[in-house]
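ok trying this again, last paste got cut off
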Amino acid sequence: MPKIVNSWNEWSRLKRVIVGRADGTMVQAPEPATVRDWPEDGFPKGTYGPLPQEMEDAANEQMDNFAALLEKHNVIVDRPEVLDFSQQVSTPDWKQDSMFGVMPPRDILLTIGNEILEATMSQRSRWFEYLAYRPLLQSYFEQDPEFRWESAPKPRLTDASYVDGMDFWEYAESFSDEEQIERFTKKKQWNLTEEEPLFDAADVGRFGRDLFVQRSTATNGAGIDWLRRHYPEHRVHEVLFYEAHPMHIDATFIPLRPGLALSNRQRYPMTDEMVKLFEMNGWKIVPCAEPALSEKPPLCFCSVWLSMNTLLLDEKTIFVEESEKAQQQQFYELGFEVIPVPFWAVGPFGGGLHCATADVYREGDLEDYFPKQIPGY
């Protein structure tokens, strides 16, 4: 029987991947974990509904094009099922008036070796999103006898998991970015409490034996502790960056190949230990190029720094958004072959090229790229 699942890092040769879909994506109904407010685009605070059909069509066209491009490079592409994301969902603890979508599989699926882990997720609108991937995971399980199919404990997401519910966001947004960094990021206290383990898979950077997990608006300390216990053979490092509204690490800090990482030029690492760990192991951290856009597209909750949200085919080849010419040039200068991909129409549906994918199989084995360690970090 074939080996289907295997991936230890972000850069080894990609052979199989999940690519999401834009179909049915919603502007989420308000909830304690997130509140959308886009009055200039038809969705003032408190309203919700499907993204416009013309936007969905454009996003799907770009995602289908990306999937076809991956297949041309001999990558097997799997796609999730589409659910009715407009439906109300509930548990015994809460009711939520909408779901979200299935464009960013990176948010929910974490592949470490021969295991795919379903993350907890911290938004009620995304609690049931795992169902869209269950048919794929079931098929992997049936075909690959070495595949470990795991799911982190589903959180209750009661009001106790959030700081002041939806009122928190109005309070937080009354401060400038600099004030938010001082009040929330430096104190490791955003919208989530430590009531239960919470994490999104996209807050985890995979560097072989070392995993770098960002404390964010989607990942709390208990979630990082759970990951540390779940992966005892790995070294799990908590990381922070000078970011006002941290959510997912892959537009902030990404590995490119052994010894080289790309950092957001505005969100540099906050802890001296992280920088020292990279330096003492011979890693070079380079700041990313300036993004092509100065403002986000309409109805987009992702930042312009999706410019660095890229996907590595292997250590020498990288997929980059087509319009991000400065970022492409930087990768050329770093020795990469760059494959441009039109993808900004996908941004409002949940992210960029890395967000839109989840590794299933990359060649290679578990390796230690940080043999020198800092005690206690």
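PB: full thing came through this time. Residues 36 and 181 are 21 Å apart (CA to CA).
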